[in-house]
Design a protein that fits this description.
Oligomer: single chain
CATH topology of the largest domain: FAD/NAD(P)-binding domain
Number of helices: 9
Low-confidence stretches: 1-15
Distance between the termini: 29 Å
CATH architecture of the largest domain: 3-Layer(bba) Sandwich
Helix content: 10-25%
CATH superfamily of the largest domain: FAD/NAD(P)-binding domain
Number of strands: 18
Structural class: alpha/beta
Largest sheet: 8 strands, mixed
Shape: globular
CATH class of the largest domain: Alpha Beta
Strand content: 15-25%
Mean pLDDT: 92
Length: 401
């Protein structure tokens, strides 16, 4: 537990009643901007405030993946820089984060899905596919291998960033920010902290904290789940594998009628979005994920995800009628309508570092660089600026892989 300790924070340490930078949120975004300011930029008197221990909420429930394949040029630029920095730190720390290059593999079995795939590694060579991925369903219409992609141990990345920031004087406080008045933040405990700069890195509470300065952005918050089952049917060096096809699930007639009779579950009998995906974890685990766009209970979500992933991985088909009990976790993703993060100055002294949808781990280091530049007057990145939010229309890669 990262509780306050002597020398880090004390209600009676008056120097802590005023800070240069107050960071609201101790997830990966919060510790990344603390690292950037304290370690890279040499700033002092930084305080991170969060009611929960660092890296224990959504940042602890990540798929832990990364990729530089993005249709949006601005996102591709951000991710390429962020991945570059992750690679440098992983090498510097002796591979502490276990960053791998297993890649991503997008697979389409329909013309509709194949039409959505583009990239230099796009292929329709079914013989090559069957040779490289014999454990997957054969004869796809097209497949795309993304090479600069894979996953890492996100907890170790976050822990390193926090340790390094603390070594440069950054402190943490278990408390909740409840309001802002000018350059003063009131905490749930009743304490008031004066600040020169405030960073909203509040994760799923990002929109709520924006309201502290009367900004009410049209940003969505969605619940996502991750299912882990024991399954050795996928090699441990396999890529993250994504079904690129929208699909209809094969329910029994009895189940289909039951689902159709409930308006909340009826969409599960209709065409559902592409994006069901899985990857190996550890010695014999398989992580299954799918953002279905329908709020259903976790067991039904799990069964739907298992069925969708079996379209790619035939060895899962035998589990459908009697699914193994999964380990389930998840978290809230906060997403702007254009699916880009919100980075930079909202108003003087108040900065945003949020709305990372499902890509917070892979974007954190690049995003922290952008926010720090804005804070220190070194440049304002309009592609991610909060000023773009009014009038936005939906679009772009949802980023949740």
């Amino acid at each position: 537990m990262y509780r306050c300790q002597p020398g880090r924070f004390s209600r009676h340490n008056l120097s802590m009643d005023r800070v240069e930078t107050l960071i609201c949120g101790a997830g990966i975004a919060g510790v990344a901007i603390a690292y950037e300011l304290a370690v890279i930029r040499g700033r002092h008197n930084i305080l991170i405030v969060d009611p929960e221990p660092p890296l224990s909420v959504t940042s602890d429930k990540s798929t832990e993946c990364y990729r530089d394949h993005w249709p949006d040029p601005a996102m591709r630029r951000l991710m390429s820089r962020s991945i570059e920095r992750m690679e440098e730190l992983d090498a510097k720390t002796g591979h502490r984060f276990r960053l791998n290059r297993n890649g991503y593999l997008y697979v389409a079995y329909t013309d509709e899905g194949a039409a959505q795939l583009e990239g230099s590694n796009l292929s329709t060579d079914v013989y090559k596919f069957c040779g490289e991925f014999p454990y997957l369903k054969s004869n796809p219409k097209a497949f795309l291998k993304v090479e600069r992609a894979g996953w890492l141990t996100a907890q170790q990345l976050g822990a390193y960033l926090l340790e390094a920031a603390r070594e440069r004087g950054t402190r943490t406080l278990r408390d909740r920010a409840v309001s802002i008045d000018g350059r003063q933040c009131r905490l749930e405990s009743g304490q008031e902290i004066q600040f020169d700069r405030f960073v909203n890195a509040a994760g799923s509470k990002f929109v709520d904290v924006c309201k502290f300065v009367d900004q009410n952005y049209d940003i969505e918050r969605e619940w996502h789940r991750k299912f882990a089952i024991r399954h050795s049917g996928v090699p441990r060096d396999a890529p993250l594998i994504i079904l690129a096809d929208p699909i209809r699930l094969d329910w029994s007639q009895e189940t289909k009628i039951e689902l159709r009779n409930d308006p909340r579950t009826r969409p599960l009998t209709e065409t559902l979005p592409s994006g069901a995906h899985f990857r190996p974890e550890g010695d014999d685990w398989l992580l299954l994920l799918w953002s279905i766009g329908v709020e259903v209970d976790e067991q039904l979500h799990y069964e739907a995800t298992l069925r969708a992933c079996s379209r790619l991985l035939p060895s899962l088909e035998s589990l459908i009628e009697r699914p193994p009990k999964p380990v389930i976790d998840g978290g809230y993703y906060v997403q702007a309508l254009d699916n880009r993060p919100v980075l930079g100055e909202i108003e003087p002294g108040f900065y945003a570092m949020g709305a990372f949808s499902g890509y917070g781990i892979m974007a954190a280091l690049g995003a922290a660089e952008i926010v720090a530049n804005d804070m220190l007057g070194l440049g304002h990145d309009l592609d991610f600026s909060p000023t773009r939010l009014p009038g936005l229309k939906p679009g772009g890669d949802h980023g949740q892989l």
